[in-house]
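Show me a record, fold above all:
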Amino acid sequence: MAEKKIMLGNEAIARGAWEAGVKVSAAYPGTPSTEISENIVKYEEIYAEWSPNEKVAMEVAIGASLAGVRAMASMKHVGVNVAADPLYTASYIGVTGGLVLVAADDPGLYSSQNEQDSRAVARAAKIPVLEPSDSQEAKDFMKYAFELSEAYDTPVMLRTTTRLSHSQGIVSLEERREIPDKPYEKNIRKNVMMPGNAKVRHRYVEERERKLSEDGGALPVNRVEYGSKKMGIITSGIPYQYVKEVCPDASVLKLGLVNPLPRKLIEEFAASVERLYIVEELDPIIEEQVRSWGIPAVGKEILTVQGEYSANLLRKALLHQEPEAIPAADVPVRPPILCPGCPHRSVFYAMQKLGLHAAGDIGCYTLGAVAPLGVVDTTVCMGASISTLHGMEKARGSEFVKNWVAVIGDSTFMHTGVNSLMNMVYNQATGTVVILDNHTTGMTGHQDHAGTGKTLKGDIVASIDVAALCKAMGVPNVTVVNAMRQDELLAVLKAETAKDELSVIIARYPCALLGKKKVTEVYRVRPDKCKKCGACMKPGCPAITKKADGSIRIDDTMCNGCGLCEQLCKFGAMEREAR
């Protein structure tokens, strides 16, 4: 009997890759996809890496596939945008060894800046998409994706969502299948995408799409579950679970292959039911195609294109039943905040004191936009802070950006910030860039990157020297400062933003959670010296609170002894003591 184990969806995807005989995995960490690579690295047979960004990860996987082995790249949905350039062309080239892109979408915006639907990207790129509904399918579909890839000479997208990635289910485990390396054969007409070759390959891609659609009705990932013919529902992914809970007696066409759609199967199912519904999260990808074939269906007119679905949402939309009212708990709102001891808080507070605006980026430091700091004015995408600051200067002149800085983390700088800074050097910008170097990829759970000196496998390697890199690119002013020293920060920020030259400030201090070091010293308030002025509270450290009588209290279970409050107190009321 096969061993069974409870697994996260991401853990099951990693297991499926191992069982499928994958040899190369590349990724950039991003919630909700991060745990895929963190589990893949446990399998010694697979080479696994954190790449600098998703484009590089996709290209690494493409190279491994061309060399004849099964390979994969993993990323969250916005990372698919970064990887789109090689992905679209890989669709034309096809594969040697199986090639799979795992794209993790985020309906409900749990940790993202938009609710992008990766199925739309795959449809434009003309690659097949598999969408599992639980952890068992996550593993099985991952394995099947490689078979599909090699059978149809195409990259395949495995589309998952936050709910699937982070929910658990029982998974039956199987042994790894060792796939012999396919011999490399030079094939310029297939692998070199210059116009003459690409025109030929485009015709192949269109024929491949037609064949996949035609074969889709017989593929094991698509199935019809007949019940009452009064209601028929086409669905896929996690929404399938809600459909089965809310409408257990309905007829259901569960699609595992959601691009290209199996037209004949859909037409037969639609003809067999009295009323057809289409239940899919985010965009009406299935619905629009089904309706374009002249098939009447009910979809987004009763269901939303926003957010994550739920059983209650479907109960109300499909059955017109109001869910039972659950009394709202009287719980205070907990806004997102930087951790106690976070070096970003110190940097943002110095910026606030100087009245600076910050062009923001993706990372923990996005929280510099919220009270009480409120210095981050913009956040677009990874690497955009530097480029948007440059655009502001070119639009309004150098004086306009004298009270602006671009802020970006060390991992994000490696991701796409380097090119943006290069552009500032090349096009003679005079703005100030602050690299918040906490020596990790903090927001996604402390993954390493090219500047930390450690690989995903744990190997110790040479680390990229950020200051030396900036100087090598021609930045005339590069300053390294301790991110927790207010006096240094204020002096450097004031001096560099006043210059008529490009400046880079590297604010360096480790993440407060990095290594989970034991806190041996904390701060307490001396009541005899405290004037109740509240200066220590201005940066918004969650460990510091004010009592009803105005006195200040430090929660020693939260304090990690960073010392920011001590620097802000003019009366010496903050005293360090052993925990």
Remarks:
- Residues 48 and 191 are 25 Å apart (CA to CA).
- The chain has a mean pLDDT of 93.
- The radius of gyration is 27 Å.
- The longest strand covers residues 228-235.
